[in-house]
Structures are given as C-alpha cells and as structure tokens.
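Sample pair:
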Amino acid sequence: VQLQASGGGLVQAGGSLRLSCAASGRTFSSYVMGWFRQAPGKEREFVAAISWSGGSTYYADSVKGRFTISRDNAKNTVYLQMNSLKPEDTAVYYCAAKVELQDWLGGSWGQGTLVTVSS
C-alpha cells in the first residue's frame, strides 16, 4: 500500500489541525493504521493507531485526550484530529500501515507532513 500524508502547517499553541493520509490499493480496510512523529533531533515516536475496523484505537500518553485517530475505509483514508496543540507537538508526522502481528518497521510508510506549533 502507498500512503500520502497531508494537512500539516503552522498553527499557534492551543489551535487545531487535521492530518489526512490517503492510501492506494483495494485492501486498505485490512490494515492497521498508525501515526508517528519525529521532532528535530529526536527519534521517531508512536502517536496513535487504529484497528482495521476502527473499533480499537491506541494513543501515546502525551497526546491522549487531545488527538483523535479515525478512518474511513470507503475513502481509503485515515485522519488525525489534533486539538489543544502545544509547541512540543512540533514534528514531522508520518502515517504508516501494517497488517496484524507485523512490526511497524516492516509496514508501509508515507512521506511525512510537517506540523509546526508556535508559542
């Protein structure tokens, strides 16, 4: 599956952004989808994930209660709604896809979209 992330930009602290990740292929609904981020000088970290059906979601503690992951299997798209943004959320955000029991590193990754939160 090929992934294309979009929706990044510059926003003030406390603001909101919605990231989208469009996937190619007819088997999108069979993939677990996730969002990761990498801040300057830091390692890539997990942000959120959603099961193939959308029935289960998982979040990093740092974004729990502020970010919401969702998916629309009819549109082959996964979203990340980000509210109450903080300067420490500044990073390049990547979407990823994997099948059950597969490691994320073995899955498919998009090119990333930059989110900058100003204080």
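The chain has a mean pLDDT of 95.
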